[in-house]
């Protein structure tokens, strides 16, 4: 993995640890945010390996889909969770919509599967 991709993946791992800590602290909305960013940084790590970069969150998900999902390198259903979790995170961050503990647990589990999937795809 390139140094830049390693940086992105290290940040994804830090976000996963943060999400677990937020969940343990009974802060479900913050858990959702950390879980989302873990997914985003993992996606950016994968894109970096292909020397593809996007300026926006939405652009990152679009590029990830085009680069890895369309060709069958990454699971379509799991990849589709990124934009869904983005919308949930935006709701908790910008619209003061709370997340339940169940939603936070599901978000964290999804992020863990996504990061693991990206690592496997990259051979790590």
Walk me through the topology.
Blueprint: H1 3-24, H2 28-49, H3 57-69, H4 76-94, H5 101-121
Helix pairs in contact: 1-2, 1-5, 2-3, 2-4, 2-5, 3-4, 4-5
Classify the secondary structure makeup into a structural class: mainly alpha
Multimerization state: single chain
Distance between the termini: 8 Å
Report the strand count: 0
Number of domains: 1
Task: Give the fraction of residues assigned to helices.
Answer: over 70%
Shape: globular
**Major β-sheet profile:** none
Question: Hey, roughly how much beta strand do the residues contain?
Answer: under 5%
Report a brief summary of the structure.
By secondary structure, the protein is an all-alpha fold. It is built from five helices and no strands. The radius of gyration is 14 Å and the shape is globular.
Describe the structure.
There is one protein chain. This protein is mainly alpha-helical and 124 residues long. It has a single domain, classed as Up-down Bundle (Four Helix Bundle (Hemerythrin (Met), subunit A)). The protein is 78% helix and 0% strand. It has five helices and no strands.
